[in-house]
Design goal:
The structure holds two protein chains of two kinds.
Chain A (H helix, E strand, L loop, with lengths): L6 H6 L2 H16 L5 H28 L6 E9 L4 E8 L1 H24 L6 H19 L4 H19 L6 H31 L20 H11 L4 H11 L1 H6 L7 H5 L5 H10 L4 H8 L1 H4 L9 H21 L5 H21 L3 H33 L3 H12 L21 H14 L6 H15 L5 H27 L19 H12 L7 H9 L9 H5 L13 H22 L5 H8 L1 H8 L4 H43 L11 H22 L4
Antiparallel strand pairs in A: 1-2
Chain B lengths: L3 H10 L1 H19 L6 H19 L6 E3 L4 E3 L1 H22 L9 H20 L3 H19 L6 H32 L4 H10 L6 H18 L8 H7 L2 H26 L4 H24 L4 H22 L2 H32 L10 H4 L1 H15 L6 H15 L3 H30 L4 H4 L13 H19 L1 H16 L4 H4 L3
Antiparallel strand pairs in B: 1-2
Classes of the chains: A mainly alpha, B mainly alpha.
Amino acid sequence: MNLPFAPQEIIRWAPLIVALPFAVGAVTILGVWRSRTASMLLSAGTMFYCFLHSLLILLALQQDPSLGPAQTNWDWFVSSSFRLSMGVLVDHLCAVMMVVVTTVSLFVQIYTHGYMREDPGYSRFYAYLSLFAGSMLGLTVSTNLFEMYFFWELVGVCSYFLIGFWWQRNTAAEAGIKAFVVNRVGDFGFLVGIILFLAATAGFWGQHPLLIFSDPQGFDLAGAIRYAASQGTLTAASLAAISMVMFMGPMAKSAQLPLHVWLADAMEGPTPISALIHAATMVAAGIYLVARAYPIWLTPDGSTFSAGLAFVAWVGGVTAFVAATIALSQYDIKRVLAWSTVSQLGYMFVGLGTGAYTAGMFHLFNHAFFKAMLFLCSGAIIHHLHHAMHVDKETRKKLDEVSLMDRMIPPDQDLRNMGGLKQYMPITRWCFLVGTLSISGFPFLSGFFSKDEIISSSFKYQGPGHDILFWLLVVTAGLTAFYMFRAYFLTFHGEYRGGGTPAAEKLSVINLPLIALAFPSILSGYLGANPEALKQLLTGAAPTAMANAFAQFLYFGHAPEYEALNGGVMLTSTVVSLAGIGLAYLVYINKLPVHTWCQQNLKPLYNLSWCKWYFDDMYMAFTQKLALPVFNFVWNLVDMAVVDNVVNLSSFATLGTGEALRYSENGRAQWYALVIFGSVAVIGLVYFLAQPLS
Amino acid sequence: MLSIEDYRIAVEFLKPALWLSLTILVVSIWNLFFPKLKELTPVLSLIGLAAAGVTLCQQFSPQATTLFGWVYTVDKLTVLFGVLAVVVGIIVVLMTMGYEMHLEPNAGEFYTILLVATLSVMILAGATDLILLFVGLETLSISSVLLTGFSKRDRRSNEAALKYLLSTAATTATLLYGLSFLYGLTASTSYYDIHAKLASLTQTPSLVVIFLMMLVLSAVGFKLSAVPFHMWTPDVFEGAPTPVTAFLSIGSKAGGFVVAIRLLSFVFASSQADWAVIVGLLAMASMVAGNLIALAQGSFKRMLAYSSIAHVGYMLIGIVANTLDGLSAVNFYLIVYGLMNLGAFTGAIMFSNETGTDRIDDYAGLFRKRPWLATGIAICLINLAGLPIPPAGFFAKAFIFWSGLAMASPLGYALVGVALVTSVPAIYYYMRVAIKMVVREPSEAVKQLPDGRKQMASSQSGPIVALALCVAGILLGSITVNPIMGVAREAVAPITNPPALGMVSPR
């Protein structure tokens, strides 16, 4: 295939992809504010351009892999001892991430036109969307850790603004604050990790840009680690410690245990935001960081059997399982999806942690499409029901009572108020089904391929507790299938339980993006599959490693590593998933009373899931009972003992230095002249007399 | 004798000052001839300032030129401080546009005098002769006195102006006394000659040299309001109209700093060991007193004004270091500090225009009602506190501290030590306001603010632009640290490494 432009030119203009959304965001905030159409067209049009450009970059790198990594660095600050720079790095990893970000952004922006049409903050929303896209793309093309930290914070800021977009609602404002606080904890660790790493490799950088990810001459992270290890300033243990501290950043941003608590609450933001930021792009930034700065997580000699990666894998594995169990009992459709996101992000970390670099990124790639689509579907349902339930006040009141009773779930997001929607919303239903099958790992949809790669890599994994990790993932796959189909059946099958009558769905700007995203949700997995390998498996021949397009494009180190298909593992995870689907069918279609049975006989376990493993309660108890009182005590102590005294002291200072004389109106201005003359004389004389002493 | 050609060249290089002078003439008579077009006065001032700024920027060339023999030097330092003066002038004019109701019916004259003050800072930036230095300082002082007393019916304003006038007179006396000693010692008024002759004097400093340095320092310290020459600040900051306070806390300080750089680093270069200790003492006293007094303030404006004394203390560290790094750090600090301080003052004007109060407690909860205003003020405050997000203010402080540490002398360590310790209360009193605005429940004054954007009366548009300019400047400065630092470095390079004398002094 011939590209319409020279590949070098395409890569040379890559900075535009970052700059344009920022410019459009700024213009929208400042100027076009009043014109809704202009805001929308400008924003979505720019994103369309970014999408095309990213695609071209991907294709250019595909045709000529030697083009990447290409980077431009601009000096931000240069001193005699170091050089801080900001720049644009285009390589294979970045190209994949850019395609993910721009594709999802584009469809979310189109969808927003339908979803937010009646919102007074429509233009503001588009401005934030553009700013977010710019920040996220900036993070993607960052050339060094400092720049990444900068954009990391920027996407965070956009995210708080968007979570709290409906800040008049208390819950939304609180969710924004929660996300902010939890991310502060994580970002603090990230920053400390960067500084520790810098301290350990301080002598290495010289006049080369600091903490750069890749450099043809080897003045990059990997080179720094080799140098520091040879100098003895960095051992395997200290590198692992640094990587674990730094991993607090990804833990918070990608909602991993124990910093996962903010993501479910972040669903207070408008649904397009949940799809864009809290499912496909920003929450994947943690995975991207680990993938980008992979050498830090390896051992100093570059092996994947490191304590740092084992930590990543275990955090991911445990999170995947815990989040899946929580999702089992939730009734808010968006929160079910949010917990499933947390769980799937855990899978990605297991992929990276067990050394399956390609598999982790591949799951990120596939997950972004189907999860964004699932969220957009949930948005479509909410939007639809919102209108249906507006019809009569009486029913609405009754619904409010049911839904608001325990969890403050808005009635139009409550699974208990849905049901039977397949006859009203056929397009959404089929799209949702595709996403559900894909995330459940149903054979030959995209999620199947990447999940299988991760599970096989955990099977092969030789690190600590590998058997447990493998079974954790298999069980989680079953749980995933169950709770996703639970949501699907509760939403689309059975009788409609909400108030009013939903209108029949029409083809509109709301469901066109769903249809568009359904294609990659089905097909993107085939980038990582090789039909030959399947043939081998079916004919019973001994499995050998086969090339696949994704791994060929994106890999870490010197040559792509391919996995041989493991029939047993594949069969196990598939059977477990199908069992999950089957169980969901029995419970929610055949009305097997499992749910009530669980509530009655497995009360503690049910509550564990329903109360989200009590993490929120623990944190609340910790802050209310311990942290806040201690903080208040210290603060009061400082305020009373120190600040007050200093203030008193400083009032003495003010007395002595002239403030006491202000508007004294007693004609003592000659005092001023006296002080001036006196200081000249006294200071001069004292200094002269002190001369011989010095 | 100067030839016609010399004058032609001089006019060529004095274009910015001439533009500004022309503007002053037009603005001063505008209200007289076109009373109906009164609101155009600030616009005319802005145009004049912009023209001066543009022509100044064109003069940023590596070649230093001295005019009228040696009286006025146009080098990169002149241009940098000239541009700084112009930018301060522009922002102060913009914020005055929202303050005019306090200055009626004489707002036209206010702009005239403000422009004269700006012009005098520009002249001070290039003055390399004692006579021109004196003329510049006096012009600045007298216009500052006039501005301070501009609220004629306000007793505090009148009193402040009178006190300022009397203290100015005192420092004029000390300065003239010092200058006459200098002339007596060296028989010249040219910086270049004095520099050379002082260098050839005996190495051990005599009482006379120390005293004449103290005399000159008292005048410079007075302009910088460095402790103990800061006695005028409480009255003036309290009594003067807010835009004037803003101008005095940065514009006249910029004038003081450029004089300090030229005098101390160049003219008195040979006795650096002596003045370094004295200036170091002034710096420490300013940091301690400035921060402590600011801590005790209940009014936002006065807190800003007092903390400016502390910032002068920080900047003096760079002067004491007297290295390329130190002086360029001073320039960088001035640029960034100017923006954030003016931004905060603008915010204060906008707030008190709407609420009529200036108590720090009344700023509580401002974010709920005026998110943009509160965000703008908060960004300025975070930078003033020197916190690293956004990093312009942080970098400014860090550069100064590094240059102090690089001295590797007890004085340097003592200065940086005092600076670090006194930064802690600074973070407290700046962040207290920022946190109040965002976190706390709205105060009574804020609660009474009308909702929505309709309240933005047209008189607020000037301050809005000023605040936006300041915040944009800070954000831009955070990104373009390196280019700004490059300019700051180039501006002082010839001072720390002066050219051969024959080249610049035609005598």
